[in-house]
Amino acid sequence: MISLSRRNAAQLLIAAGITAAPRAFAQAWPSRPVRIIVPFPPGQANDIFCRLLADKASEGRFRASRVVTENRPGAGGTIGMQAVARAAPDGYTLGFGSLASLAINPAIMRNMPYDAERDFVPVIRVFQAPLVLLVPKEGPRDAAELVQKLRAGGMNYGSSGPGSTQHMGSELFLQGIGAQAQHIPYRGSGPALTDLMAGSLGFVMESTASSIPLVRDGQLRALAVTDTARRPQLPEVPTMAEATGLQDVTTFGSGGIVAPAGTPIAVIEALYAAFGEAMRDPTVRARFEEQATTPLAEGPAEFAAFLKAEQAKWKGVAERGKIVIE
What we know:
43% helix, 13 helices, alpha/beta
């Protein structure tokens, strides 16, 4: 059952440019596989979570038609999301949008190939996960020491690429403590974490899924998590507020399914019902939680409100830091 009232859902979706669907169309859909475009390479967190969701949904409403995933990485996620924006609004092509592709890129990219607010309709937000502030194992013992070193100047930090959640989360942290550091972008988290372990970087903010194994093995030191509460998987690691006193640097990686603008209301509701059911499955939730990731099943209205708030937040960070990608 969709979390909105039928009337409120219809108002929201119509305002987003979605058309009503004839009853016959709604009943016939889906008659062929539903495709979800993942704008990132195979093996990354968004890809793993999308495949898990697609497989579970294929056991339910989509048993006869199946849900398949297609990776179209490149340009910070914009290549894949552009393909979604240009797809027919018939419920057969969807996108697995990330915080970067739906909220950060619009704030920092001068030439966006799509309009994140007008070209997509939110269907369901499926997860959120904080970042972990990491330093080399021989680095600062706590966040206070790191802040002192950063304010002294001359430090660098790495991220998985320009405009990534890791990049912008680091910038939000630096702005909060009133310091600057040289950003070293990498093509993915792996190379950045490798250089951090070698001591070539001062710090990296990384997802919990990538961070926890390295912290537990003693290869890196975790100083804080960008969450409002400590994570059960890292109970000894304080929140950013506890570690630094900063109250407004909470950062979550997040992802969810969107459809092209104009997709019929009945199809959006059916998609949310099917994927929401999959996300409430205990085995699916357990798989997400194993990665220190919070599983969600937020409907179109909640997802839209989240994106609106995040777009405003990262626009402010970009403007204060003069961050622009040509």
